[in-house]
Fold this protein.
Amino acid sequence: MNFYESIFIARPSLLDEEIAKINEKVKGIIEQAGGTVQKIENWGKKKLAYEVQKEKKGTYVFLFFQSDGKIISELERAYRLDDGIMKFLTVKLDKKDLAQREWAKKKKESQPEEQEKIQERASEEIKAMPAVRQEVQET
């Protein structure tokens, strides 16, 4: 089984409930074929780079899932049949992409620790500079 990422752009006029319904439909298609959905993210409404079907904005939805390659044609067929979906893209991830994804995840998790270290260093430097503050106040 391979890992895939899929992004689709839904019409901005769709309500959140309708987008959730599309998400459940897509999740059902993947799970019915024996795949597993790892993550579904609604990225919200964003301005499009160019007009698509006379729309200037769209609601972006991201999926990360694991399945056989046979399901992709069925998934994209469902995207095409749904009038609420304007554009879509599905990409198979190779080992390099998965490694990069894990690296980014680890980096994101370690960022709060790095921020704390930077703040500690800055506060230590400020404490070590009282002589400079007194000179500035005297002039």
The chain has a mean pLDDT of 81. Helices lie at 16-32, 70-81, 95-127, 130-138.
